[in-house]
Amino acid sequence: MTEINILAESIRSRFGTVKRARGNFLYTEKRVRLTDMFLEGGRAVLGWGSDFFSGWTILKNIISRGLTGSFVTDFNAVSKNSGLSRLSRAVSALLDDERIAIICNSKEDALKKSLAISKDGTFVYRPWNAQNIDWKNAACVLIAPPLAWAQNIWIVAVKSEFVENLQTDFCSALIPAALEAAVTRSFYDLIKALQVREEKDWFKYDKILTKYWTRHGPWLFPKIPQEKYESFVQHCLDCELVVSPFFSVPSIVPFGADSGVFKKLEKSPFDF
Question: How far apart are CA 249 and CA 45, in angstroms?
């Protein structure tokens, strides 16, 4: 079983199935509300549900038109005027630099394509993480769309001049137009969130969280030794907290949550 499978089964065995997901919370069959600090590895960093992401309405509207196949539509076509797709324009707005968006079906594929373009100019984007990188100088930026969707879609945002000089054709993967439109909308929702969410929204939980994690913005990197991390994940579940099941993938401070969600962890500390 993978870490994701183990986490999902651990939730089910303790609390039953997840009946609803909203914001940073999972509502379970046994009427226990879990605080989600994994958030699909950051893909759901904006929160679960339509209150936090406007793309679901777009997704449903496009699905109702039957646009779920591998064909070119108005939602994924390259504009004759700008030479950019809607997704490319959204990624360009996020990085404040004109980019061509290449869709990949895995991080490995995205990294392979990026390194083939520029070994020294490839970087991974993580919102609210002070990396001191001038994105305008990056040839390729790997981005996991902030779309609350359990699918391993990655975007390679390539500077347009690098695409023009490529000897190899790096085709973007074709995904259904409805899904691409939702991915596109997720970047605009992220841009909006970047202007609102800030340090004051995360440091207020430091008294409890920094015992177990080192925090950079909303991202939590474990202080727990790797050999004890799996036990820590299970302990957090007992405290009604869903943390990242991967030692190498940071957990996330639950934006807007009441500090009371950490009371059980505070009263039942994990010894490491």
Answer: 13
